[in-house]
Amino acid sequence: MVLFTYIKESKSIIDETYIFKIDRRINMKKLFKCSVCGYVSEGDVAPEKCPKCGAGADKFEELSSEATEKIYRSDRTNAIHMEIITLAEKIIVLSKEGIEDNLDPKCLAAFKQAKDEAWTIKQRSKTELAGHMNLGKW
Ligand SMILES: [Zn+2]
Fold first, then answer.
1. What's the pLDDT band for 83 if we cut at 50, 70, 90?
2. How far is the CA of 46 from the centre of ligand 1 (A)?
3. Do the beta carbons of residue 68 and residue 28 sit within 8 Å?
4. What is the reported pLDDT for 129?
5. How far apart, in whole angstroms, are the C-alpha atoms of residue 79 and residue 130?
6. How remote is the CA of residue 69 from the centroid of ligand 1, in Å?
7. What is the pLDDT of residues 91-119, one digit of tens each?
8. Domain of 55: which CATH number?
9. Helix 2-26 vs helix 65-101: angle between axes, to the nearest 10 degrees?
10. Which Pfam families match (predicted)?
């Protein structure tokens, strides 16, 4: 029963990802980037005023179809990285609680290892996101 639930949940996660990708393809719109702050706006025309820095429409440049595709294409992966970072932070908090609880040496060692591994997972995803930002996949 537990296995069945797990498979069912895994399948639904995959399905949602698939639906998300299709939805993004169909709804791909023009993107305009603020040359002052880098904010990216979605729509048929540039916004009258940048929602981030207040710059006028004349400060916006329409992104090429290649740059637009990169941003839409990377949306889901970026969201997955952010979710992984959040989960890793939860593991770090839980591990610290386990370390403080200090039931026995084996648990202590396991929690210390989990804390270190979660840190690695968190930082690896952060590094990927930083790379995406530098490559316009954001
Ligand atoms: Zn701006």
1. very high
2. 11
3. yes
4. 97
5. 13
6. 21
7. 999 999 999 999 999 999 999 999 999 99
8. 2.20.28.10
9. 150
10. RUBY_RBDX (PF21349)
- Cα of 37 from ligand 1 centre, angstroms: 4
Residue 109: domain span: 64-138
Q: Do residues 95 and 111 make contact, with C-beta atoms less than 8 angstroms apart?
A: yes
Task: Say which amino acid occupies 14.
Answer: I
Q: How far is the CA of 49 from the centre of ligand 1 (A)?
A: 8
Looking at the fold, whether 69 and 84 belong to one and the same domain comes out as yes
Q: How confident is the model at residue 28 (pLDDT cuts 50, 70, 90)?
A: confident
Q: How far is the CA of 75 from the centre of ligand 1 (A)?
A: 20
Give me the sheet containing 31-34, strands edge to edge. Answer: 40-42, 31-34, 60-62
Distance of CA 33 from the midpoint of ligand 1 (Å):
8
Q: Has this prediction a pTM greater than 0.85?
A: no
> Tokens 């979605």 label which residue?
42
